[in-house]
Amino acid sequence: MTQDVYLTGITTTGTPHIGNYVGAIRPGIEASRDLSTQHFYFLADYHSLAKNEDPDKIVQSTLEIAASWMALGLDTEHAYFYRQSDIPEIPELTWILHGMTAKGLMNRAHSYKASVQSNVEGGNKDPDKGITMALYSYPILMAADILMFRSSKVPVGQDQRQHVEMARDIAQRFNHHYGETFVLPEAVIGENTAVLKGLDGRKMSKSYNNTIPLFAAEKRLRKLIMKIKTNSLEPGEPKDPSDSTLFDIYKAFAAPAETAEVEQAYADGIAWGEMKQRLFEYVNDHIKPARDTYERLIADPATVEAELQKGAERARELSAPFLDRVRNAIGIRSLG
Ligand code: TRP
């Protein structure tokens, strides 16, 4: 049995929120404590070009995401932690994989199809309006990320499953054509990791603008938690935890015994205002130590940069020789 290699990327388009924390960052850091497996976590900054983001926002997001993982204690001696654009072998491999990717496969990508559909529904004459080639071939760049480090397991949200399957298809086709080169990856969809709801009760997501930033300052955190939508049940009336964003968030942070206590408080008719205060205190206590570290890192980007450079150096020890092997296999090689 070869050891499993876990790899996942985080696009640099936004500030990490508590949904990212419970869904990806916390499980990632926990998993990386298992020294019998290898872990790669990287900032997918080239992916952010698909939507033509504001350059300053990409820089800021890169800093915030890297500082978050560091502040929360990712062991960067064991896990590989790097920025995609520091690994020039990744865009090279992306182009190489273009030669093994059927255009029809890309036509079937959900994210591309969703953009076309919204153009059609919006009455646009051109169904491809506003769609860049970076958006269209996004799954190929993602395949390069995955295949480069021969990852076998790719922890992602449900919305990324198809992309991982595409990486697998592309790898299979390459191996068939040029000989065994790539490991075939599979998606790991966290069944136990919570998908949190946001302030308005919809899935917490930066595209809905309903997030609670993970390291919001204390005052802001409190204010945001006070804004979470509840129903109109009065204090003293029993409340249903299974239909409560406040409860879901509490549960995602707390130990089972504490969650059971809050469940009882719901049955006893806790007032929404009191529950909000309780949630705020819990989350704030939980986050506080890491938030102090986070704030120090944000004020000291050079330290974060140095960490990313160290990660890139380690990652390139793997990617550079592997890309040589790939180039050799496809006939891009020295003549003498
Ligand atoms: N596309 C992923 C997302 O939006 C991020 C990502 C980029 C990724 N490259 C990856 C995830 C490789 C897993 C593996 O969430």
Question: Could you walk me through the main structural features you see in this protein, from its secondary elements to its overall organization?
Answer:
The protein has 336 residues and is mainly alpha-helical. The protein has 2 domains: 5-101 and 137-195 and 301-330, Rossmann fold; 215-296, Tyrosyl-Transfer RNA Synthetase (Orthogonal Bundle), CATH 1.10.240. It is 53% helix and 8% strand. The chain has helices at 18-31, 55-71, 89-98, 103-107, 110-121, 133-136, 138-148, 161-178, 218-227, 245-253, 256-267, 272-298, 301-330; strands spanning 5-11, 38-44, 80-83, 153-156, 186-189. The strands form 2 sheets. Strands 1-2-3 form a 3-stranded parallel beta sheet. The relative contact order is 0.14. Tryptophan (TRP) is lined by residues 7-9, 11, 44, 47, 142, 145-146, 154, 156, 160. Residues 7-9, 11, 44, 47, 142, 145-146, 154, 156, 160 line the site of tryptophan.
CATH 4th-level superfamily of the largest domain? HUPs
**What is the typical, i.e. mean, pLDDT?**
95
Strand order of the largest sheet: 1-2-3
| Overall morphology | globular
Task: Please compute the radius of gyration using only Cα atoms.
Answer: 22 Å
State the name of the first-level CATH class of the largest domain.
Answer: Alpha Beta
Largest sheet: 3 strands, parallel
**Structural class assignment:** mainly alpha
* CATH fold group of the largest domain: Rossmann fold
Fraction in helix: 40-55%
* CATH arch. level architecture of the largest domain: 3-Layer(aba) Sandwich
Q: What is the domain total for the residues? A: 2
H/I helix tally: 13
| Pattern of helices and strands | EHEHEHHHHHEHEHHHHH
Q: What are the bound molecules? A: tryptophan
- Tally of DSSP β-strands: 5
- Beta-sheet strand percentage? 5-15%
Measured distance between first and last alpha carbons:
38 Å
Low-confidence region ranges: none
